[in-house]
Write a structure and sequence with these properties.
Blueprint lengths: L2 H6 L7 E3 L2 E3 L2 H11 L14 H6 L8 E2 L2 E3 L57 E2 L50 E4 L5 E3 L4 E8 L14 E7 L8 E8 L9 E2 L4 E4 L10 E8 L7 E2 L11 E10 L5 E2 L2 E6 L6 E6 L19 E7 L1 E9 L2 E9 L4 E8 L12
Parallel strand pairs: 15-22
Antiparallel strand pairs: 1-2, 3-22, 4-22, 5-16, 6-13, 7-12, 8-9, 8-11, 9-10, 10-13, 13-14, 15-19, 17-18, 17-20, 20-21
Bound molecules: zinc ion (ZN).
Length: about 400
């Protein structure tokens, strides 16, 4: 699959948030303003608040340890065979040596697929703290991107990521954890298979659990892709769709029309919710789709780790990507992955990341995070079709100083 289709992908735009406004895609700004009042589930509304202010007050960089590594792309059609304890810990010497190569293993257990009547109660996620468990340490020298999938929308349809509700976030406290990515698109726009495979599910989820509760996606399609990754099946899921044009068991190729964009289930406006599941076709088995979607020509992806010296990931911490290449400096926010008791958000087995910026124009950027009063900045280059790996190692988590954002 892959190359031809990737070449056909054009015109993906990205939304940029600055002081709560979307730039470049001003029509989306209006759209979002309207939508933010609706409190719809499935796409966040408002943007960030005071980033511009904060950035103008930056202090000299302190204690930054980061190694950006750009990883060359591989052919997209070749599988790879083959709430922390609040105790202050001694400051270890931060090291970037990737001596340990572990494999992240999803710890979630298979879930009860019977249909709950209501959404689960939203956990009170902890923010700006490090997790109890350390992340595996990836070896940048061994990393290869697995951009196996292609944009599940027509060429002319922008990816139009909803940046306020990225994978692993709760939309700044408004929603349940997000385990996919949302693309704004009009009702009726074709939804395309992101890769070749077999339809594993097509239809309603009124009687079968695919999301937080039944009838979460309304209608959905799940494709099990042909290739195994590290011996595990890979699935893509298309949620909130309207008409479904495929049946279970049907073969599909990348780019085949499988459904139409809609607003089924809990969605209150049309958008495509896209998931990638690895190992099991279950809600608890997702990965960040931006690490699976091949970037459009001229664009790339940043995969990052924000960890303390013991490799424990920061949770719910804002990371800002600063693009100073144009006259008007642009800021894109994301948040490091939150965790919950069921471990529904999973870092990639290879990258062991806790944040991702996808669909970025190639160029030079700066990452910024402010944690417990210390500011961290790191330059990173985004290259055409490539994955740039960044790790920022922070000062130790200190208690009881828990920074509260906003
Ligand atoms: Zn979604």
């Amino acid at each position: 699959m892959g190359e031809n289709f990737i070449l056909k992908m054009k015109g993906i735009a990205y939304c940029v948030v600055r002081s709560g406004r979307f730039l470049r895609t001003t029509h989306y700004a209006l759209f979002f303003v309207i939508l933010s009042g609706l409190f719809f589930v499935g796409c966040g509304g408002a943007g960030s608040g005071d980033i511009a202010t904060e950035v103008t007050e930056m202090l000299p960089t302190l204690a930054v340890t980061a190694v950006p590594v750009t990883i060359p792309p591989t052919k997209t059609d070749i599988p790879q065979t083959e709430t922390p304890p609040p105790t202050a810990t001694p400051l270890p010497t931060a090291t970037m040596s990737p001596e340990l190569v572990e494999t992240a293993v999803p710890t979630a257990t298979p879930i009860d697929r019977s249909c709950p009547a209501a959404s689960p109660e939203k956990p009170d996620y902890e923010r700006n703290v490090v997790a109890a468990d350390r992340l595996p340490t990836p070896n940048p020298a061994l990393l290869e991107p697995h951009f196996w999938l292609v944009k599940p929308l027509p060429d002319e349809q922008l990816l139009a990521l909803n940046l306020t509700y990225p994978y692993g976030s709760d939309g700044n406290g408004r929603y349940l954890l997000h385990n996919g990515l949302d693309s704004l698109a009009d009702k009726g726009v074709d939804v395309l298979a992101a890769g070749a495979g077999t339809v594993a599910y097509a239809g309603e989820d009124a009687d079968v659990l695919y999301g937080w509760r039944c009838d979460w996606y309304g209608n959905l399609v799940v494709i099990e892709h042909d290739e195994l990754w590290q011996g595990q099946p890979v699935y893509s899921l298309y949620g909130h769709v309207l008409d479904v044009f495929v049946e279970m068991g049907q073969r599909v190729e990348a780019g085949d029309r499988v459904a139409e964009v809609g607003f089924g289930g809990v969605a209150t406006h049309p958008h495509l919710h896209f998931e990638v599941r690895v190992g099991r076709n279950e809600f608890s088995a997702t990965r960040n789709p931006l690490l699976w979607l091949a970037p459009e020509t001229g664009r790339g992806v940043i995969v990052g780790r924000l960890v303390d010296g013991e490799k424990r990931p920061w949770q719910g911490t804002r990371v800002t990507l600063i693009d100073g290449s144009s006259e008007e400096v642009e800021f894109i926010d994301t948040w490091t992955y939150l965790d919950d008791p069921e471990h529904l958000i999973n870092p990639d087995e290879d990258y062991a990341e806790n944040f991702v910026f996808g669909d970025l124009a190639a160029g030079n950027y700066e990452l910024f995070a402010k944690i417990q009063g210390i500011e961290y900045r790191q330059s990173v280059a985004v290259k055409d079709g490539e994955l740039s790996f960044v790790e920022i190692v922070t000062e130790p988590f200190m208690t009881p100083t828990r920074e509260v954002e906003d």
